[in-house]
Amino acid sequence: MRVLIAEDDPDLASELAKVMRAAGFATDTAENGEDAVHLGDTEPYDAAVVDVGMPRLDGFSVVQQWRAAARNFPVLILTARDTWSDKVQGFRAGADDYLTKPFVSEEVVMRVRAMIRRASGYAASIVQCGGLVFDSQMGGFEFEGEPLRLTGFEWRVLSTLMLRKELVVSRSELIERVYEFNSDANSNSIEVIIGRLRRKIGACMIETVRGHGYRLTCSRE
Amino acid sequence: MSETAAPKARGPLSLHARIALSAFALVIVALVGCGFVMEHWIVRVVSASFDEKIDLQVLSLAGAIDREGRLVEDQVAYLPDLEFRGQGWGWSVRTAAGEWRGGERFAVSRRYPPDPDYARDLLSADATSEKGVPMHVRYELVGLPSGKAEIMVAAPRLVMDEPVAKGFRWIVGTLALLSLGLGAAAILQLRFGLRPLRKLQQAVAAVRAGESASLSERQPRELLPLVAEVNALLAQNEAGLAYARRHVANLAHGLKTPLTTLSLRLAREGASPESRALVAQLDRRIAHHLRRARSAAAGIGERGRADLAQVAADLAFAMHHVHGTRGIAYAIDVPQPCELAVDREDLDEMVGNLLDNAGKWAHTQVRLKARIDRQLVLIDVCDDGPGIAADDISMALRPGARLDEDEMGYGFGLAIVQELAQLYGGRLALGRSADLGGLNVELALPRRA
């Protein structure tokens, strides 16, 4: 899963990126509103964390532009001012949630996870697929009652497949949701990650749909 | 330095009084002057015609004096005393040959110099009759071979004064009517002339009440500079307010962003709970002072105006995002129109905190119902949550007091609402909701008529 952090303060952007990466998310950062609009328009994000007070274009306008361009990934607004006027303005602009500075790292991660879960159409935080259980709020996986130990890349691929279980996810989309903007994505590495995941949860759970991509399926052992 | 209450000084005269007084003074001066001039001319015209009548008598007497200086009475068709019999006329002719008199006897008291307006050589004098009646005298000095002759004819002044007085009475009456007319015209003029000023006063009051943002430029030419100055002042005030608010927003952003970084870094580096508590304390202090700064910048109560229906609808939309995922339904019932004399942002803050608090504690629903009670709007926000025990109500309104330790709960939000409501002369009351069973918060705020 991949998120965009739009924050003009480099220190905070860097800390937030560390927090999000530690939680398993592929994370890009934009240091002004215009860059944020561009990245949101061109990259497939699962969610965005947008600061209101950014140079060139404020956070509200960034969200408005995304919504006008039918970019519907969930957006968490970060505000320094804890006023309802600002929150109303944020929601009216198209934001899905808000967080007032300062906040603790767990809170931003939980909010982003909850937004992604809701956007994927799951009301409950627990998503199940056969013997595989994903706690979308805490971010952990269990397989047949045992906690599943995953690397960062494995977590990103499996959580993406889990939230779209029984649907085919293309390899290119998996690549885009696993790798950050400036990283050198190796297309073969997705096969390597899928192979490792199949060893952990059973080969039959992740189907290869030739010419299309991969599908997490719950119906067969 | 102590301030002492100075006695209330009398302000300068009102414009109405100034214009009315000056118009009144001008009318009085003009009419009195006019009266004097007209009286002078009446006196002149009446006395000229009177003199003409007397002069005729003098000339006919002069014509009846023969070469030796004797008055030949037979040559006078009518002697003055006989022609104006019973009217108190008198005459005298004095020559070297003798003196002749008729009618009322009189003694000359004052002689006037020749009047250049009269071509005739006749002169005027004042006299008094033997009965003490003031007389007007016309006389002529005629040179005769036998010496000088003086011919005098006297008529009672009353004969001349009466038409003058009558004319004067007419003039005074006419002028009095004229002054009444001018006074009425001046009042109309005042009302018509000062109407733009009265309208301007209403327009300024409307700006102060928040009904309009600036004064209309459709004004008489003389008022335009004043209106332009007032509008410039309003714009400056507005810009200052916007600047102050922007400054507060920038300050919030500038302080809270590094604080967030610090908080995240402390967590990442595994700092002690005490260090993390310090960040939380710092945040509370910053939030407190920013709220103070914002309230000071808002110029509370001056030009506040907000539509409760709009505010409640916007906030319900926001609450749907905040608490909607927990299945909390918000019902809003606000009569329309429902305008409050409160700054929009402050109303957002008060109602937002109430709806948010209710949403945190509600099981399934929150209701906002507003009703108008004379000069107040009573806003009830209730939920179907556990409510607050009667003993805890006073504690809930103490700033910083929190009844819930895990969540920003009733206490913190309600104290902010109470503080803001009191600034506007409103109040906050807590109780139990009869309908939903949870907490009922009644917020009373001033209505804008």
* CATH H-level homologous superfamily name of the largest domain in chain A: Response regulator
Which parts of chain A are unreliable, with pLDDT below 50 for 5 consecutive residues or more? none
**Uncertain runs of chain B:** 1-6, 402-411
Largest sheet of chain A: 5 strands, parallel
Q: Tell how many strands the DSSP assignment of chain B holds.
A: 13
CATH class descriptor of the largest domain in chain A: Alpha Beta
Main sheet record of chain B: 6 strands, antiparallel
Q: What does this 3D model show about the protein?
A:
Chain A: Keywords: DNA-binding, Phosphoprotein, Transcription, Transcription regulation, Two-component regulatory system. Chain A: Residues 124-218 bind DNA. Chain A: The modification 4-aspartylphosphate is found at residue 51. In chain A, 42% of the residues lie in helices and 22% in strands. Chain A is of the alpha/beta class and 221 residues long. Chain A has two domains: 2-119, Response regulator (Rossmann fold, 3-Layer(aba) Sandwich); 150-216, Orthogonal Bundle (Arc Repressor Mutant, subunit A). In chain A, the strands form three sheets. Chain A has a five-stranded parallel beta sheet with strand order 2-1-3-4-5, with helices on both faces. In chain A, α2 (33-42) runs parallel beside α3 (59-68) and α6 (152-163) crosses α8. The radius of gyration of chain A is 18 Å and the shape is globular. The mean pLDDT of chain A is 89. Chain B is rod-shaped. Helices cover 51% and strands 19% of the residues of chain B. Chain B has 449 residues and is an alpha+beta fold. Residues 1-6 and 402-411 of chain B have low confidence and may be disordered. Chain B folds into three domains: 17-165; 224-298; 306-446, Heat Shock Protein 90. In chain B, α7 packs parallel to α8 (344-361). In chain B, strands 2-1-6-5-4-3 form a six-stranded antiparallel beta sheet. Chain B has a five-stranded mixed beta sheet with strand order 8-10-11-13-12. The longest helix of chain B has 49 residues, at 15-63. Chains A and B meet through α1, α4 and α5 of A and α5, α6, α7 and α8 of B.
